[in-house]
Design brief:
By secondary structure, this protein is an alpha+beta fold. It is 26% helix and 31% strand.
Amino acid sequence: MKQSFYRERDYAFGQAMLGLRTTLGLTQAGLAEVLRVSRKAIGRWETGETYPNASHLKALLELAARQSFFTAGREEEEIRALWQAAHQKALLDERWLSALLGTPYPRLEIVTPQWHEQVMAQTALGAWIDWGEALAVPSFYGRVEELARLSQWVVDERCRVVSVLGLGGIGKSALAIKLMHGVTSHFEAVVWRSLRDAPTCEALLDDCLQVLAPQALRGVSLSLEQRLGLLLERFRHIRVLIVLDNLETLLEEGVNTGGMRAGYEGYGYLLHRVAETEHQSCLLLTSREKSGDLIPLEGSRAPVRTLRLARLDADACEQLLAEKGAVGSAADYTRLVEAYTGNPLALNIVAQTIVDLFAGEIAPFLEQGEVIFGGVRDLLARQFTRLSPIEQTVLLWLAIVREPITIERVLTLLTRPLSRTQALEAFEALHRRSLIERGQRPGSFTLQSVVLEYATTRLIAEAASEIERGQLVRLIEHGLELATVKEYVRQTQQRLLVAPLLLHVQTLYTGRAVVEGQLLALLDALRTQTDDTQGYGPANVLALIREQRGHLRSLDLSHLAIREAFLQGIEMQDASLVSSMLRETTFNEAFDIPWAVATSRSGQYWAAGSRRGEVHVWREEGKMLHLAWQAHTDTVRALAFNPHGRELATGSWDGSIKVWNIESGTLLWTSRFTDNIECLAFAPDGRTLASGGDDAIIQLWDAYTGTHLQALPGQDGPVFALAWSPDGRLLASGGANEDIRLWELQEGLSETFVWRLSGHANWVLGLAFAPDGSQLASASWDRTVKLWDVKGRRLLQTLEAHTDRARAVVWSPDGRLLASCGFDHTIWLWESNRNGYRTGLIGHTAGVYNLAFTPDSRNLLSGSEDGTLRVWDVERGQCIHILQGYAVSLYDVAWSPDGRWLASAGSNSLVTIWDEEGLTSPRLLTGHHSLVFGVAWSPDGRWLASCGLDNAVRLWDASTGEAWQVLHDSDHDNTLFFGLAWSPDGTRFASASYQQGIHVWEVPTLVRRWVGHGQPTRIRRVAWSPDGMQLASCGDDGSVCLWEAIDGRLRARFKEHSGMVMSVAWSPDGTRLASGGSRGDSGELIIWDVSSGECLHAWNEPSAVVFALAWSPTGARLLSGGSDGNIRWWDPQSGECLRVQKGHQGAIQSLSVSPDEYKLASCGDDNAIQLWNIQNGEHLRTLQHDRPYERLDISGVKGLTSAQKATLRALGAVEVAPVPTIQEAP
């Protein structure tokens, strides 16, 4: 299809296309099929990158007309506008338009996406109601006229925006909740959201769209305009009522009354668009002030109205007071109501004072002059001073936590011991005084919005005063930002407590340096106190310093008691924690990308397996690292807990399966293959373990002894997914051949191939049986999730939400939810009883590899390429905990032809160019979206090539760092690339791939010259012979192949290796070829005669798997880098190891000899490049970015487990052993 490209994206046109498609109820793939274009073309239209040509635009307009998309009576106007917006070179065909408008088309039946079906189904059953944080209103007084007027505006007159205004405590929220209960039958979706925690407009729109149109988010980064466009499409398509409570939180105070605060201007745009756009929905606002954006749009007949709540009427006030137990004469009631201007909150509070202090008699209260004039704030101030110290503490903790919490949780936060009875009395007293309210969860309490605002303001003011005086009280008793709360709560605490407090403190001093000096002085003062009296003081001061600096580098934190400090993702290089006490403080974890995650059946243990072969196990819902160990020498692709024991099975790309005792970390048994292990699954009875891998065979094992039981001929290619039915009779497998196979296993494990389920158009990466066994879910690289009827062996439904390859699928244990994840960075939740979308979980910044539900079905774990293990509350759809890993591996290093520069490829998606002498800062080349495995310079130094897991080979201008070209496998869009090499003359370069052979490209035409398919495995490395006539490759199938460089003909295959081959290198004269790899957990080296294919020398390296090889310039020495971090110098004639040099912490991934033949560069899993004298092994220098805790001194630190200390050391921390005291002899 010919398309007109333009420099700037036309976002307005893209939004129009997106809105048209979603209103038609079509997916991108569905619309592409109707118009007979590619799905990518639809995507480019919707992002504003390209316009459809005239024929496709006509077809689209005809489809829209048939579906009654255009406004009745304005069809011609809207069609012409759309034609003009699409920048068509040809004029609109008037004859065609006339025929289109004059033809009474029958409505075209098209397939609708699941979210539309879901909304329609919910409409038939009643409104979809999402109460959000709305509290129950057990008692409601008066407001009959106000309710009737609001109902008329919202239901009968269909006003678009309605504001309910009034003083704090006047009953705006209660009125809105009462209205919601009364009008739900008139709407198809009703949503309540509180703005008291000041979410951004983008966050609020995402939250609402998760309810109204979850598939629209689908991992795509949308602008505010696009988000709003989607919301308005929903507003037009169905009747929606959205209530936004506490709008005043977002409004400026003082001079610009009614205007939005800085950073919240998007809300003004939202109000304008909702008010001015035609739709059938309503936005109801509660606020103490009117938004200035709505004033010009208001009117008695306009779709924008305002109801200002006056005082509660006398009868309602008297009823409220009487029910609270406050009694008196009619005159007493009148005086009391007048004194508090009919404010329900104020009357509730004062009524309890009357009951507590005056036996419920109003008259004595009035006579003693207890009446407070000046509004709710003054009343709250008086009430606060009357509270006991315990009650004040509880009230402030509720303001800090900012969501309903239990008495037990508050007890864990207190700095001084308090009995449950005392705490219960404090809560009851606060509840009687109407200062706290019961939460939705039984036994939980929270603050009413007015009280929350007052308590927050008071806490910040008192804390600022304490900092100025240099005497901390509140800041010792209360933590402002807690490391152990849910992640979204912690972010709110940082935004609404820490940041405003810092701003307040900064106004007290003349500059940031003075502020920091005062904060450091507070740390010095705290250091003189005992650990148990420092409370939250040090952590609060740290939070303020971090907020101002953005880091904690070079900070003296020694001899402090640090509680609930959030130090994750914070740089602390050269700081000191010497002899400090740490409690409930979170740091970065040292795990690499978590490719596999699992939870034990009891929920006691969580496990993650990393790309570097490590396994981490946590206890206490991820709060305590239990064990961490190097389980494998390559990526851990699969984890599985035995459902009836304490065993954890791990499967890796190193070709091994291992089963461990989870409590001790003891290895129970292991089994090894010569090919990658991709998946593991325990049978429900825990007695049998199934494994699948690249050898296309399903293996069955005795789970307790490791005895091999049976082999099933799994797929026609690699087996990527396995799942047992709940009764253990069926085993499902999926893989590279795109279908799913079901095996029936009888007693004794004799198998019967039952059925093949076909429907996916690409690899099947995930399988999961529903807990009742009735359905099987599958996730595929074709971007779909499919549901299959197990008994009928038929496809039930295709779930389309992912915009990139779907990676995994898992059912919640209670069977209500199905979760899927993929490379589009998103997780989707599907409701099994509604067969539709529930919500999308947005937060990961890279592909999501694996998922695991907790046993109670309340939380979901996800492991992602962004290095995080996240925990999600599936009911709220929010991330509640993040385990942040930090572990950058360098997979390849290459010298520039002039020897001045080094290029490295890493797991952080970066290509980095380093100054060989370390005199200038490294240059970062960004563009890859996943791990980068290979990097190579062209012989003339002009170009740099790189490749990785994002299915791309990228060419860079080496002098400028700008991307020149991006290449893909035109035959397979899922090809993963692992290694690169340029031909000696620079006219070609080769790339190695997973399952798709070797690709050779010509330069500068970038035409793919040939593809070698004779090695169907993961090919790790490729290397050109010195004369450029041959190409060598090595792979996980244990083979080394030689290819004709001209036409790609396979010349020879060497198969002496007993395990995977990780590296290959030509001798300088081109007569010998060295290859290295694995032999179990040890290594293997072979030198071949190229002309004859004879194995000249073969020897084992018992200490390590060989990942990297390089020859000395004369060919007299062979150098190897291994999984133990050592570089070895070998005599290639005798096989004698001449020198061993410790080079890296972790595996060495690559070796490269400098052009001047004097230096050797090595890189590995410790994120470092080491430079060596190639002759004598002398270390020359290290090139490395500082890790987060580089040189952080943790000597004598208390409160950390040995595993946590090991983690800090792995991230750069140092620990100096105490020097023993030498006593003089008597």
